[in-house]
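In the laboratory, one determines a bound structure by crystallizing the protein with its ligand and collecting diffraction data. In a computational setting the workflow is compressed into a single prediction: the sequence and the ligand go in, and a structural description comes out. We illustrate the idea with guanosine-5'-triphosphate.
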Amino acid sequence: GLKKKEVHVLCLGLDNSGKTTIINKLKPYNAQAQDIVPTIGFSIEKFRTSSLSFTVFDMSGQGRYRNLWEHYYKDCQAIIFVIDSSDVLRMVVAKEELDTLLTHPDLKHRRIPILFFANKMDLRDAVSSVKVSHLLTLENIKDKPWQICASDALKGEGLQEGVDWLQDQIQ
Ligand code: GTP
Ligand code: MG
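The predicted complex, in structure-token form:
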């Protein structure tokens, strides 16, 4: 068949936000892992959509590994940034990390799409994706297309909408 266009994606966000759970859910059912453990360093994963073949660098969000992120900015064509919507206390840390990446020389002024998942929307303490968007001041991002989707990675809800948007941005 036709070879799908390959896209390199970086999956970023604080530890425990649900990055690995999200990427796992995007794989075909028989390729999904049953137990998800905190990522050490990073892990390279693949999934496909109707027209694209995604290679994802699923980075660890733990503080001690966050300095690895910037080494992968140069080669990425899209970013998935995951936020735990129920962890309002650490949203200021997520904002700091986001602001640092947005001003990094390897990403600044590049029109690469950023898909935000306001994840864990199933939890009682979760705030809305609109609230997450305000707390992270996403409206200030002017040089990159971005979208925020509420998601529940355990049930797989909200993931497809996000990936459909990403696919449209890349074509
Ligand atoms: P690091 O690899 O340490 O950076 O974390 P991560 O962002 O990859 O998080 P991971 O996918 O390992 O998920 C962390 C925990 O959150 C796990 O216990 C998941 O089951 C749980 N989790 C992930 N997504 C959701 C969600 O949408 N809702 C709920 N309730 N729990 C979730
Ligand atoms: Mg992980």
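The longest strand covers residues 5-12. Keep in mind that any predicted model is a hypothesis to be tested, not a measurement.
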